[in-house]
# Entry
Amino acid sequence: MGAHGQGLHGSEATTAGFEYTFPAIRGVQAGREYYVSMCPLRLIPRIFLFDEDELAPEVRAQRVLNKGRVPALARYILENPDDYVFSALTASVDGAMRFVGVSDQGPGMRVGQLHIPMASQFLINDGQHRRAAIETALKENPALGDETIAVVFFHDAGLERSQQMFADLNRHAVRPARSIGVLYDHRDELSQLTRLLALKCPVFRNFVEMESSNLSARSRKLFTLSALYSATSALLQGLELKSSKEAEQLSWGFWEAVDDLIPDWGEVRRKALSAAEVRKQDLHTHGIALHAIGLLGNTLLHESLDPEEWKPRLTPLRDVDWSRTNPEWEGRAIIGGRVSKNHQNVVLTVNHLRLQLGLELSTEEKQAEDAYQRGER
# Structure
């Protein structure tokens, strides 16, 4: 990418008359020309703008930047400089773009240089969080500035068109199921541990849905990978473990201990019960129950990592009535006959299990329990 001027003098020497030159490929969509180029990362924060937060939604061309997402995206780049990956940015340009092909005919007409006046505005239609993360990462590691990101340039046809582009770009964007995110994430140690449990641990082997985060009514699986991930995360949270091997042994041993106290899991493995039947009638395979059991185990493991101490304290789990018809679950794990897993429901579900085990409730849990008992559900 280069820039040059066209003979300005004195006070006229502003961005007027200067232009950016991008190596680009020209394409056509819906009868409109667009261009794809590779831009150095250092250029991204300098020329690509997004709407100010204070503008009303109806006069913005995209959603407000969620600043909470930016640090995590920036860390992702900084912590994985050898294998991070960002998809292309999409931008509208309100200046007069001029494309010069490398030849006058044939395939070369599609490859050339895109000239854009420096006075133009570049508005990001898709990728404003990536842009902000790049800006943050560059401050900490300027060397990243020599790397590139693909940018798709469209001519800015006004606010209405830009808003429509944002809607169209996001209309069919479907976030992948959390289970497949865990399955494919080889960087996160907890994802690796969860996959190991799902594929090797006798409790879960052959009974975990590895791709979807929802089980169909006829599925022969008992659990989803995303539910096992959340539950194991809750189990190990805040524990001072020496190695990933210790985390593996601890979580493996914990889920085997739980398995001994929920006979239905073994009955399904032995084909005495069907997975579909158990999921329909009981709560213990659902994500909210696994998460609550994980939180329960976390409390016990914080007090002692010795199985001889925490295993006996789990024993009352054997007497829990997991049936979905148990009125104790209504308002806790079940709302209007449907399993619900928002934060409050998880708290109330783990409360019930803590009381079964004779454990004390935290301040937040006690407040939630008091409200539940008063009927404020």
